[in-house]
Amino acid sequence: MLGNQLIIDADGHILEPVDMWDKYLEEKYRARGIKIKRDDKGMEFLEYDGKPAQLMRSGVLHTLGAMGRSAQEMKPSAERTYVNSAPFGSMNMKERLKLLDQDGIDQAILYPTIGLLWEAEVEDPELSNAYCRAYNRWIADFCRDSGGRLIPIAHLSMLDVPAAVAELERAVKDGCKSAFVAPFNHLRKAHGHPDFDPLFAKFQELDVPYGIHPTFEPASLASRRFSGLGSSIWYHQVTACYGAQVAFTTLFSFGVFDKFPKLKTVVLESGGGWIGYWVDRMDALYEVPINRAPLKNPPSHYIRTQSWISADPDERALAGLIKFVGDRFFWASDFPHQDHGREYMNELKGLLAEMPAASGAKLAGETVASLYQI
Amino acid sequence: MVTGQLNDRSGPQAEACATEIRTMPSKDIVVDADGHILEPPDLWEKYLEAKYQPHSIKVVKNEKGLECLQYDGKLSQMAQPGFLAALGGMGKEQDQLRPDAERTYVGSAPFGSMDARERVELLDRENLAKAVLYPTLGILWEAEVEDVELSQAYCRAYNRWIADFCRPYSDRLIPIAHLSLGDPQAAAAELERAVKDGCRGAFVAPFTITHKPHGHLDHDPVFAMAEKLDVPFAIHPTFEPKGLNRARFHGMERMPLLGVIASQILQQPLSTFFQFGVFDKFPKLRVVILESGSSWLGFWMDRMDEGYETWIGGTLPLKKKPSEYVRKQVWISGDPDEQATAYVIDYVGRDRFFWASDFPHPDHGGKYLDALERMVAPMGPEARRGIVGKNVIDCYKL
């Protein structure tokens, strides 16, 4: 469909098996694993560390793989379950390869689903690291026999830096090509904070990219600007990019890129079209003498050398912007999540048609292949 | 580029500009969509209605001789002692902006920031046809004044004053009313009064005292009045109550570069217009986004449309996808040092963008006309003509 060019989905998701944590958690944490249970109405709910999840309501786990479905199909249900609603390719390695073939995609970089939910509600550093290790071992196994087409990415918790450093090293040895962190942490310590330097050092040493991927977040972090928007799903959807934008910005605030000049950073699932504004405004703020950032170069320098952005394929503003920012972009399907549409290949085709062929080839796959060395 | 140091000031206490005055070499009409004035320190004492006089905004000195702002008898917590002298500090170095008893709000005010005749002279020398004017103290107090009635009185006082300030030069200096959404009926009435008095539009802060989203139907009377009067409704950044944005990390208030989230601060109120279907209810309403960058608007259109086109769109009371309203009813004022805007302007719409000087505020650089030249250089003639002045003239019907 897109000719002979390399097509890589920079951010697809899998739905983890229900019993994944039971099988992959180290034995001492097994009783505190992530579980899917049913309430007295027969509705599925998530449990972390023996407590029901608060942010994911009962009966809606079936919506986690609901890309392209209608509002009617998003309602709580006892009949629809996490597993029986999982679309083709969302839970099985061979199916996913067939789906990639159908879509004309060469490779997919994979991120979790339940793995994006629990961190907001689990504050125990030790357990958080155990949850991450379990996922990381599983995703490496899941992708292992995919012939290099499914790319495992590790999940790291920021609550215990030495443990995260050790886990990054272990996961990469086990096959993971990169790792991501949430845009928040329960310590409320900015991502760029020097306490995380050992982690950046390890990313640099292993030569794998550091990703920031949106997750569920503690309610205490929600914007307090307005009240009464609790059920305004669309509003929360459009503003869900803010956490990753802020977390990424703190890398500049603390001068991370000068300390780790070979560090490669990736912002995921937060859109791509904001970065042109970020280039301009951060450079302007860098010039204002008050509270100047500890950077040797203007912030745009580090965006154009050490940062990459995974964009949505329906972002039509990108075609023009790429001429200004440079070839810093990937595209991502977000499959099988319900907050994006199923038409991602057509959208990608439309986006590529609007940009020069060389830039299009980079956005479609070349950039991500070279960054992740896949 | 013609430059010149201005020495023939008539403002008795005004300082010269910290940077050289530039001239915009343009055959097109050039309009500053968002310039500021420094209000006289006694504005509220003179223009507030008598019953509110004891609760006025005042500039007072503390025991160290540093100027402080006082609202309703209480010292401002956000405007630090000595901060007032920095408000006109565009282009100055950091050591000239530090609190110092020798430096005062009035004494540090640059040429053109406090006097209408001077401002027109500044515009003449810059080759600017007009400047749309916004307050300075007026964008500080609202974060700390929770009394809804007093907020309305503060707005009315400013609005009467800015209309008077601009009146002798009404074709050059464009007065914009300040509204507070804490009492929508009072705000609608004030908009009507202010426009009759000469104001050409109104602005509100990006937050509301009630925490009701801007698009909330309780604010419909204000939108209805703006539509009836055929004037734009703008959102301009202000000081904000603590904790609205920077809860994510400890110490965020002091982190360098975090000012970049200005875009988020304006995207939030803008998005509520779609969440509540304001543009369908008021199809002639014109909404203006100020001082928060502009090149993100294409991104935001894409993002709003993307959500609209999934099942989530069914939860929105909209007849069309969000970008269609943006292209018809939303304008945005950019910083002239935004180079990315040239790369999205054809996509978003050549008729959607303004530029603004932010003069004389210290958070933007003084060489805004040099920056503007660079900003428009890659643009085609239609886009250039629009952004330098035609769009703001069309939107405000100047």
Q: Work out the oligomeric state of the chains in this entry.
A: heterodimer
Contiguous uncertain segments of 5+ residues of chain A: none
Instruction: List the domain count of chain B as a whole number.
Output: 1
SS elements, strand count of chain A: 12
Query: Which structural class matches the secondary elements of chain A?
Result: alpha/beta
CATH class of chain A, please? Alpha Beta
Q: Write the CATH fold name of chain B.
A: TIM Barrel
CATH class of chain B: Alpha Beta
Mean pLDDT of chain A: 96
CATH topology (fold) name of chain A? TIM Barrel
Tally of distinct domains of chain A: 1
Class from secondary-structure proportions of chain B: alpha/beta
Beta-strand fraction estimate of chain A:
5-15%
Per DSSP, what share of the residues of chain B sits in E-state strands of 2 or more residues?
5-15%
Q: What is the correct CATH architecture of chain A?
A: Alpha-Beta Barrel
Estimate percent helicity of chain B.
25-40%
| Number of DSSP helical runs of chain A | 13
Please give the count of helices of chain B. 12
Please list the strands of the largest sheet of chain A in the order they lie side by side. Answer: 7-8-9-10-11-12
What low-confidence regions of chain B span 5 or more consecutive residues with pLDDT below 50?
Answer: 1-14
Please tell me about this protein's structure.
The complex is a heterodimer of chains A (374) and B (398). Helix content of chain A is 36%, strand content 12%. Chain A has a single domain (8-22, 88-372), classed as TIM Barrel (Alpha-Beta Barrel), CATH 3.20.20.140. With 374 residues, chain A is α/β, with parallel strands linked by helices. The longest helix of chain A is centred in the middle third of the chain and has 20 residues, at 125-144. By secondary structure, chain B is α/β, with parallel strands linked by helices. Chain B has a single domain, classed as Metal-dependent hydrolases (TIM Barrel, Alpha-Beta Barrel), CATH 3.20.20.140. Chain B has 12 helices and 14 strands. In chain B, helix 4 (184-196) runs parallel beside helix 5. Chain B is globular. At the A-B interface, helix 6, helix 7, helix 9 and helix 11 of A face helix 6, helix 8 and helix 10 of B.
